């Protein structure tokens, strides 16, 4: 049987893509948590054409609610 091996996105170590690697695509829980922390700190993001910035008018008001 041919096993697929991918690189851990955090450290680059080879990871077998299968049930033997419960944290795939990461090599271990530590690398998985490092990656999660980078997303939480907004060091990583998904690119978008419709970028919002701090100066744009948006809020979490309910639909139909008058602007403040």
Contiguous helical run count: 1
Rounded average pLDDT: 85
How many whole angstroms does the radius of gyration measure?
A: 19 Å
- Main sheet specs: 2 strands, antiparallel
Strand order of the largest sheet: 1-2
Number of strands: 2
Spans of at least 5 consecutive residues with low confidence = none
Cofactor: Zn(2+)
Binding site for Zn(2+): 8, 11, 27, 31
Region (Disordered): 44-68
Keywords: Metal-binding, Zinc
Structure write-up:
By secondary structure, this protein is an alpha+beta fold. 18% of the residues lie in helices and 9% in strands. It has one helix and two strands; from the N terminus they run E-E-H. It has one helix spanning 29-40, and strands at 5-7, 14-16. Strands 1-2 form a two-stranded antiparallel ribbon. The radius of gyration is 19 Å and the shape is elongated. The protein starts with a strand and ends in a 28-residue tail after the last helix. Inhibits all the catalytic activities of DNA gyrase by preventing its interaction with DNA. Acts by binding directly to the C-terminal domain of GyrB, which probably disrupts DNA binding by the gyrase. Belongs to the DNA gyrase inhibitor YacG family.
Describe the secondary structure blueprint for this structure.
Layout: E1 5-7, E2 14-16, H1 29-40
Antiparallel strand pairs: 1-2
Question: What brief labels describe this structure?
Answer:
alpha+beta, 68 residues, single chain, 18% helix, elongated
């Amino acid at each position: 049987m041919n096993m697929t091996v991918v690189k851990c996105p955090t450290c680059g170590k080879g990871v077998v893509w299968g049930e033997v690697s419960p944290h795939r695509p990461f090599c271990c829980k530590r690398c998985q948590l490092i990656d999660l922390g980078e997303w939480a700190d907004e060091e990583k993001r998904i690119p978008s054409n419709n970028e919002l910035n701090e100066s744009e008018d948006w809020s979490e008001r309910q639909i139909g609610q008058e602007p403040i």
